[in-house]
Amino acid sequence: MPVTRRTFLAAGAIAPLLSSCASDLATYREEPFDQLAARLRVCAASYVALKADQPAPTVLVSPCSVQPPLDETSVFQAASLTKPLAAYVALKLVAEGKLDLSAPVSHYLPEGYVHQANPMAPPRLAHTDILPAASLAHIPVFTLLNHSSGLPNWSREPLSLAFQPGTRWQYSGEGFMLLQALICAVTGLDFERSVSRHAFVPLSMQHSRLRWTGDLQMQGVTGTSWLGNESQLTYTQPLAAASLYTTAADYARLMQALFTDKAMLTRTLSLPIVVETKLGLSWGLGWGIETAAHGPYLWQWGNNPGFRAFAMMSATTGDGFVLLTNSERGMPLAASLAQQLIPAEHGVFRFHMLG
């Protein structure tokens, strides 16, 4: 369904409930993946395992019928797995000498930032405000990537800083929307073209899009709610925080590219900020970081209405996986898959924000 202000707010209202239903995902780790998918009635799951950074063939699990039938080209909403993609583009610009991670955002946006207060709504329902350059001057670029910018996750009010940037972690979709504007300013291109030039084309991510396009009509998987009803947003504009449509194979190529680019991998692991010490969680430049056996591990979850996604990879071995599902019940599958492919005591599956 198209995104409206009502559907956007409703999705936000129900998210905490769904998260509480799926707390401590580690309890699912010993249950076989296919059996768990059937029990939870996750009708479409697609994953690719990586071994020493080499992607294996796509694995499809469909214990109940879906239309169109599931295949390796089936496109899912990846939700917040969009964020590491945006970070990949930003770090490519760093490598090209076009972006300085320590510079204030105001250096690249001297006229300030036009904040769209409801970015998932149609333009006619959206309203904007300005975050002035004086505020941007306090935000180093790197804090957008590690969620320490002081910006909220999403804001329907005029955008402002909740704390001094760089002092603590707060998950921020708004930070990645600001990063999107910064990337556009640096490249002189719109966000879609920037991502296409730096990621989609060179990595052969041929089934990936940043907004709904007509060619996805026959490939797109329909999302389902916690209760099993059709539930999804249709993204008509690219959002660096949430709008990626992709396949498991395409996303695995992105993960492989990150692992093989050692300079980028080192940057990704740099400037970590603590998320939850007792779980061994921090956040680097674009990815969460988990301290565990055979790690550290990079990780990111995705949570859009009707979809759950998860990606995880050892920064030491290149072993990992990306999982895409068409159900709000899908996140427990990530715990099962992690135990199967990269067994360890993964604290991330006890993290309260997963669900």
Automatic annotation (TrEMBL):
Judging by the UniProt lineage, the source's domain of life is: Bacteria
Q: Which UniProt keywords apply?
A: Signal
Q: Would the keyword Transcription regulation turn up in this protein's UniProt record?
A: no
| Signal sequence, start to end | 1-22
Q: What is this protein called?
A: CubicO group peptidase (Beta-lactamase class C family)
This protein's species is: Chitinivorax tropicus
Q: Which residues form the Beta-lactamase-related domain?
A: 68-338
Question: Can the keyword DNA repair be found in this entry's annotation?
Answer: no
Q: Give one Pfam family.
A: Beta-lactamase
